[in-house]
Amino acid sequence: MAFDVQEIRKDFPILHREVNGHPLVYLDNAATSQKPQQVIDALVHYYSHYNANIHRGVHTLSQEATDAYEIARKKIQEHFNIEHKEEVIFTSGTTQGINLVAHGFSEFLNQGDEVIVSALEHHSNIVPWQMLCERTGAILKVIPMDVDGTLVLSEFEQLLSSNTKLVFVNHISNALGIINPIAEIIEKAHAVGASVLIDGAQSCSHIKPDLRALNCDFYVTSAHKMCGPTGVGILYGKREWLSKLPPYQGGGEMIKEVTFEKTTYADLPHKFEAGTPNIAGGIGFGAALDYLNGIGFDAIAQYETELLNYATEELLKIEGVTIYGTGSEKTSVISFNIEGIHPYDIGTIVDKLGIAVRTGHHCAQPIMDFYNIPGTVRASFAFYNTLEEVDRLVAAVKKAKMMLS
Ligand code: C6P
Fold it and tell me: Is residue 35 part of a domain?
C-alpha cells in the first residue's frame, strides 16, 4: 500500500481540532504520540464488552480479557523478535522498567564495581542508576558526547574494563534525535562481560528493533510514544537475567504460594507483574502495533526522513537559528534555538498559532549543560505530520523571532 499521509490523518481524530483558532499542528510527538481511532476503539471495546480482572477468574469475561491481554503480549514478542514470551514483562512504561532493573541489580553489585551511562540520557536513565550506586557503592562513569550530539566511542572503549558490570544507553536521544550505535556498544560491553540495558522510549515509533539480533540484555519502552495508550510499556529481559533478578514489587499475581512463614514467587513473567495490571493499556498496545505494522516501518522511516530534511533546511534559512544534534544518524527531532531569545518564549508564541512544540531541558539537563544553554525548542515529527505543517512551523518561528527581537 502506498504511503498516503492524508488517508493516515483521517485515522487520528485529534488532528482535526483547532487550537487558539488555528488548525492544530502537533509537533510534540517525542513527548507522546497521538492515537488512531483503531487504538481508541480497542480501549472502548474492552471497557464496553469484556472488562474484567485477568488471570484469576473462571468466568467468561475474565477469560476473554485474559486471552486478549496475553494475545497482546504475543504480538509484542513477535514485533520485537523476542525469543520467549515470558521475556516480555508489562510495566507502566520506560521509567518503571529501568527502575525494576536498577532495583534488582542492588543484589549483584559490590563496592567498586563500575556502571556506565551515556551523556545523552534522559533523567529516567540516569537517576535510578545513581540511586543504585548510592545503595551499593558502585561507581557511575559517563560516555562523553561530541558537539554534533554523537557519543565519543573511543572514550567508551577507554571506560570499559573487567570492573564494568552494566552499560545503559538510549537507542535514540529524546532531546536531540541522534540514533546511537547500540549494536556496537552492546558488542563492546559484552566483550568485557558487562550487561547492557537499552532505553528504547524514543526509538520504537520510528524503528522496529530486532532484539534477538541486537542481543542486548534488557530493552525498555513505552506504548504511548508509539500510538498506544499511556501507563503501559514493556521491559524485555533475557530469561537468564529475569530468573536471577528479585521481584520488584510484592502483591497479588506475582506469587506461587503465600504463608506467614514463607512466600514463593510465580514464574516469569508474572514474578514482575504484581497487582492488577493496566489491562486495557496492554490490549491497546497490541492494537497500536497492529496499526503501525499496517503502515510499515520502512515507509514510516522514509517519510519521516523527508520531513526531517525539509524542516532542517527551512529552519536553517532563518537567521540566528542553531540546531543541536547535527550527527548524520538522526530521527525526526529538531532541537533548536534562536540567538538571544528564550526557547520558552518561542514555544508560547507558536502555541498561540496552534503549533505544539516542547520547550525546556527535555528531562536531559546534562545535554543542556554541555551546550551551556537553558533549553531548546524541540519540534518532533511523526508520520502523520505534513510538509505543509513544517511550513506553518517555520512561518510561526519567523513571526516569533520578529516579535521578540
Ligand atoms: N521522554 C520527552 O518529552 P516514560 O515517561 O516512562 O514513558 O518515558 C521516560 C523516558 C525515558 N527515556 C527517554 C529517552 C525518553 O524520551 C522518555 C520520555 C518524553 O522527551 C517525556 S519527558
Answer: no
Atom of ligand 1 nearest to the CA of 233: 7
CB crowding 214-231: b at 16 or more within 10 Å, else e: bebbbbbbbbbbbbbbbb
Residue 204 annotated to the active site? no
Looking from the CA of residue 92, the nearest atom of ligand 1 is 6
Catalytic pick among 133, 204, 227, 363: 363
Q: Is the pTM of this model over 0.85?
A: yes
Same domain, 17 and 120: no
343-399 pLDDT tens trace = 999 999 999 999 999 999 999 999 999 999 999 999 999 999 999 999 999 999 999
H runs (alpha helix) in 46-193: 60-79, 94-104, 127-136, 153-159, 182-191
Distance 122 CA to ligand 1 centre (A): 7
Task: Summarize pLDDT for 122-180 with one digit per residue, the tens.
Answer: 999 999 999 999 999 999 999 999 999 999 999 999 999 999 999 999 999 999 999 99
Ligand 1 contact via 207 beta carbon (within 6 Å): no
Pocket-testing residue among 90, 95, 168, 381, ligand 1, by greatest number of atoms within 8 A of Cβ: 95
170 lines ligand 1 (CB under 6 A): yes
Evaluate: CB of 362 within 6 angstroms of ligand 1. yes
Total domains, the chain? 2
Assess if residue 126 is contained within a domain.
Answer: yes
User: If residue 337 lies in a helix (H) or strand (E), which one and from where to where?
Assistant: strand 333-338
Q: Which structural domain range is residue 212 located in?
A: 40-293
Residue nearest to atom 1 of ligand 1 (CA): 31
| Each residue's pLDDT tens digit, 181-227 | 999 999 999 999 999 999 999 999 999 999 999 999 999 999 999 99
